[in-house]
Amino acid sequence: MTTLRPFTCNDMFRFNFVNLDPLTETYGLTFYLQYMAHWPEYFQLTEAPGGEIMGYIMGKAEGHKDNWHGHVTALSVAPDYRRLGLAAKLMSGLEEISEKKQAYFVDLFVRVSNTVAINMYKNLGYIIYRTVLEYYSGSPDEDAYDMRKALSRDVDKLSVVPLTHPVRPEDIE
Q: What is the pTM of this model?
């Protein structure tokens, strides 16, 4: 049976194989610790019966007024555990937490080349809100889609009216 539980400091020594995917952003130790300290409810993992980490999600609550939202910083599932619905389960948990915090929407950034993830997010109800030019560093830099899903507090769905023009990373609120 798969277990969904909070990410702990000990998990920092056990989750590297989940991050080996080239489409998964990897951060420094202090970045992960900051998320655990500030938004522990948004940092969850799925664990196999044998104790293997199958995947994790890391996020936060941010913004002000009608821009108050949940943000998915990272979502990754180990290759052996893909296509089992784990990403959807992790996303659903983050959305529930954001609902409890009375957020208007949940957002995330995804590489424009990551069509598998984009289609998964669309199937979960996310829309492409805008394109962020050269968001991901590399050779060459890659654009990102800012994808959003309105939550129940956004009755008129104003948070998911797509922008018609791309933005640069420095223009993101």
A: 0.94
